[in-house]
Here is the input.
Amino acid sequence: MSVLGWPVSQVVARVLILLGPVVGLVAAVVADVPPPGWVAALVVALAIGWAFMPESLLGTLCLALVLAWWGVADLVGLPAEALVAALGLLVAHVAGIVAGYGPPEMALDGPTARLWLTRGALVFAAAPVVWLFAVALNDQPEPPGVWIAAMVAVVVGAVVAAAAFGLPEEPAREG
Amino acid sequence: MTQWRATAGLSRALIVAGSGVGGAVLLGEPVGLVLVTPLLFCGAMGLAARPTRTPAATSDLDHVSLHEGQGTTSRLQLTDAEDVEQVTRAVAEAAYVATRPAEGRISRLLAHGVPDLEISPRRWGRRVLGQERVALTTRWAGYRWGPATLPGLQMQVLPAPSAYTSRAETPQPKGLVGAHRSARPGSGTEFAGIREFQPGDRLRRINWRISSRTRRLHATTTRAEEDAGILLVIDAVADHGRSGGVDGAASSLDLTVRAAAAMAEHAVRRGDRIALRVIGGSGRQLRFGSGWVHLRRLLLALSAIQSGSEGHRALATHARVPLRATEGTTVVLLTPMLTEAIATVAASTARRGLPTLVIDTLPANAEPALPDDTDPELADLAWRMRKIEREQVLAGLSGLGCPVVAWRGPGTLDEVLHRLARRAQLPQVRLR
Here is the structure.
């Protein structure tokens, strides 16, 4: 089964690439910091280009633009919608990786997709932890170097956790 | 030499995560950190899986010689692939080669085995698979090796073994031992007559009933059974019509080659000797021989045929080379009969007294291949005139005693061979 000559799995991956950054902006709208029209249009345009060329620099620009909008937006506190935006960016990034494994006419491998689903869930689990940590420290006096120390701790923890749980599954042995 | 390179995914994760972390630290806004934390993990894991060995990849086919419609497997061999997590293969499309998965592209986790591609040639001939591109990716899609280009593999595709049987005897068998009823007496099983006993006759041949009635010893005679010689003459001057492969429409050369293969296999099964002569294209000749090894040689020669685009003079010279068909040989000419030189060959063998049979292999819906700038009305008119000329040539050959039949598979030649065999019993005047 195919859509416009592409297998359905490829179409699904590319639709996720397109929707991820859009979800990031919709979350900003819900958080009451709606982006101007030109930002939304630019993000959608970049996302469409990225969906057709998952290996291109358009993906980086698209994610960076969503990130930049959240960075410059006049936020009140740290809204939970930021987690939705983080999920959108991650889904688009992972879909871009999976779609970039081969040409668009190639159907995606089921075990590969499941592996990246597991990995995505694992790495996304860190976002609520960081969000809770940031909410807890909000309005607290910041000791010098706390952000850098926190980042180092997060990265080390991520590497250890992903190395332990994120390896590809072994196929079931016959006989 | 192909090297590992960072993937677009790794670059994207690191750039976006770096921007988010930098912005968060500089602006004191933790939202950037929340957004990029998952990407930071992905990037860090990709970096941690940095490869240390350079792999190598080669591909091979399980079978390099097979019949059209059969299938084989293209296997990829990887060495030093300990760092590899994902293997992607993409084979470029090649004419008359089907692949599974369709489009010839597959990607799979190496932990589940190196992905294989199933290959099935759909038409006889020498087939070259399209170039293959192989990409290997490390864990967390951090680094990619390739895509490396592997050269296209070659395979020799023999014509499909089609069902062909014939119960007709060969017109003039002149061999040693075989399955055909000969015109001369011998130790076969077919009744020839009863005559007076002669020295040398076997005792078991004595016909006691006639002997007692006539009071002289009489013996029953039988016809010898001999093998026959069949010379297949292939017209490879041009290929008319469109070929859709083994399960699609057949061009004139498809019909020719498949019919020749079927007749050769049938002849070998009956113990006959068979030879091949290709006019046009490679101009290949194969001497008389019998047995399965000879059949294999003949099928390989058939699969190597390519339609030629020789000039008329070269073709006429080519066609004048003697066929080396001796007495007792049946000449089977497989042709769409659109070339004058081929008609000359058929006429000259028929006038030599050799049983000659023309198998018409022009597809019913054949149309000439034309350059783009040709006037279609003019081309249609020329094609119709050509076909009228062809009908006249075929009628002329029939008048010379050279039957023309269209290839229909099993039993195609039975009736005409019966007629040729009956005619072969009659006294003839031959030109030498």
Notes: The longest strand of chain A covers residues 2-3. Residues 26 and 124 of chain A are 19 Å apart (CA to CA). Chain A touches chain B through 66 residues (CB under 8 Å).
